[in-house]
Amino acid sequence: MNIPGHVVRRATHADAPAIQALFAQDLEYWAHVEGAPLRENEGRLIFDDKPPSVPDERHHMFLVDHIALLDMLEGYPDEQTWFLGLIFLVPSARNRGLGTRFIEAVCDHARSHGARALRLAVAKVHPDARRLYDRLGFRFVDDRKRTVYTGDVVELALLERAL
């Protein structure tokens, strides 16, 4: 993946501590959007956060500089669609247009690998993210619910954008 002006590299299991440190910069995100506190091993667990039908080689995670993590699934829920599981920017990197640039880079990356659509789920308690996705051409597909590790349920809007 290429994002001009940024160092982007594929994340590996060895990056789990760095990912954990990224996540720890915004504990409010986890409580508000995920509906549960950040787990002490979230940086490691994210590597396994995918449906069993998706092989590891189709789980793409990229670290951008030391400010963001992009997590996506290739060919999910169907062969022509990619799923953006998480775009996480540290608080100091927000509100500078980087989210838009990073999502466009994800779209370009998925398109270059044959995808025709990018799908994502946004927590209904995160209206700022929803406004961004709407502005970027994502359209509502369905309502979903996700049960987090605490047993709490988070309400989501499933969105999709043609590529």
Radius of gyration: 15 Å
What number of domains? Answer: 1
Q: Beta fraction of the residues?
A: 25-35%
CATH class label: Alpha Beta
Shape assignment:
globular
What is the CA–CA distance across the termini? 16 Å
Helix content: 25-40%
CATH superfamily descriptor: Gcn5-related N-acetyltransferase (GNAT)
Calculate the mean pLDDT score and round it.
94
The strand line-up of the biggest sheet is: 1-2-3-4-5-7-6
Question: Could you explain the architecture of this structure?
Answer:
- Helix content is 28%, strand content 31%.
- It is α+β, with helices and mostly antiparallel strands and 163 residues long.
- It has a single domain, classed as Aminopeptidase.
- The protein has a seven-stranded mixed sheet, with helices on both faces.
- The model has no long low-confidence stretch (mean pLDDT 94).
Supply the key terms.
163 residues; alpha+beta; Aminopeptidase; seven-stranded mixed beta sheet; 5 helices
List the helices and strands and how they pair.
Layout: E1 8-10, H1 16-24, H2 27-34, H3 42-45, E2 59-64, E3 68-73, E4 81-89, H4 98-112, E5 117-123, H5 127-135, E6 139-147, E7 153-162
Parallel strand pairs: 4-5
Antiparallel strand pairs: 1-2, 2-3, 3-4, 5-7, 6-7
Could you give a quick summary of the protein structure above?
The protein is of the alpha+beta class. The chain has five helices and seven strands.
